Amino acid sequence: xxxxxxxxxxxxxxxxxxxxxxxxxxxxxxxxxxxxxxxxxxxxxxxxxxxxxxxxxxxxxxxxxxxxxxxxxxxxxxxxxxxxxxxxxxxxxxxxxxxxxxxxxxxxxxxxx
Length: 113
Fold this sequence. Notes:
Blueprint: E1 4-6, H1 12-17, E2 20-26, H2 31-46, E3 54-59, H3 66-71, E4 83-88, E5 91-97, H4 101-112
Parallel strand pairs: 1-3, 2-3
Antiparallel strand pairs: 2-4, 4-5
């Protein structure tokens, strides 16, 4: 069973380096973001299927993520938040705006097949 980690400039690089990772881009004042991270956290508490995948969120409004934002110019292109990016071995492979465990699982299944 997994959990939703919180990333900052201090730990995001290590998080993204290897394996399959799901990164949720949020902002603390976004009600849709809070609802999605709550839904995802609840899913992860009981999930056994994706225990080899690490999941994390990063608050784009935080002062602790300036380096992340500077290093990832593609953030200017996201259509809105929450925004989800699936990384494999450090490279983004899939993304989607909004929320939904089913949508996320479908993308993870495509990666693993």
